[in-house]
Amino acid sequence: MKIELIALFSWQMDIKPLLIELHFLPCLEYFCLLLHHKEVYLEVHESYVKGSYRNKARIVTSNGVQTLSIPLQKGKHQQKNIQEVQIAETTQWRRQHWRSLKTAYQSAAYWDDYAPEVEALLQDKSDKLWGYNLQLIKGLIDILQLDIDLKLTDSYAQETTDSQDLRQKVLPKNKDWHTPSIQTVAYEQVFQDRQAFVMNTSILDLLFCKGPESSLILENMITFS
């Protein structure tokens, strides 16, 4: 046992801080990365890029995967500073998102335990995408009781040797994971009687389904490479 503990400690000491962009209701693999690195730098000075999870999240419903999207104000957002990207308030999207979550997870084992806290986070009135996502992830880390040190970048660096740069790596189209290795751990989902296990959806799927076991499941997804 002593040998295992020493090996684990040495392995953790070799891990560089993580550099990554901020996502909306991040997927399980994203949270595995945060948990694995402990010290995390969120990229504040990047440009908005389409085709990412910056304003999209995936949940599991009775009809399969549903994507929740935060609407953005009309205009060109591609390559716009992420802090300047504004949320569109022309629709009641917060209410619509909550209805979708309630329909999908109200029969989940831990819905009643976490729904009030999650709803309060989702109803935040931030008008900027960055600010909204930041308060969400901080709130989710608190709910999950994860030991993660979130920091913000001071400026944009094209390349860095001081951190593990995984910006633009956690993408809907990119399933190539090298550092750290992440292996899916299946758990009981709400509609498992009618559909196969759906991998790597929003952290809310795990939270509502497994509650206080969520952090352990995330840890078990992280493997040694």
Descriptive overview:
With 225 residues, the chain is an alpha/beta fold. The chain is 35% helix and 13% strand. Strand 1, helix 2 (28-37) and strand 2 (39-42) form a beta-alpha-beta unit. The longest helix has 16 residues, at 129-144. The radius of gyration is 18 Å and the shape is globular.
Structural class: alpha/beta
Shape: globular
The tally of structural domains comes to: 1
Give the end-to-end Cα distance, rounded to a whole number of Å: 20 Å
Mean pLDDT: 87
Poorly predicted runs: 1-13
Q: Measured on Cα atoms, how large is the radius of gyration?
A: 18 Å
Helix content: 25-40%
Largest sheet: 4 strands, parallel
Which band does the percent of strand residues land in? 5-15%
**Count of β-strands:** 8
> What order do the SSEs take from the amino end to the carboxyl end, as H and E?
HEHEEEHHHEEEHHE
Strand order of the largest sheet: 5-2-1-6
Q: What's the number of helices?
A: 7
Summary keywords:
225 residues, four-stranded parallel sheet, two-stranded antiparallel ribbon, 8 strands, 35% helix, 13% strand
Summarize it.
With about 220 residues, the protein is an alpha/beta fold. Helices cover about 35% and strands about 15% of the residues.
Write the SSE topology:
Elements: H1 2-13, E1 18-20, H2 28-37, E2 39-42, E3 56-61, E4 64-69, H3 93-105, H4 111-122, H5 129-144, E5 149-152, E6 164-165, E7 181-182, H6 203-210, H7 214-221, E8 222-223
Parallel strand pairs: 1-2, 1-6, 2-5
Antiparallel strand pairs: 3-4, 7-8
Helix pairs in contact: 3-4, 4-5
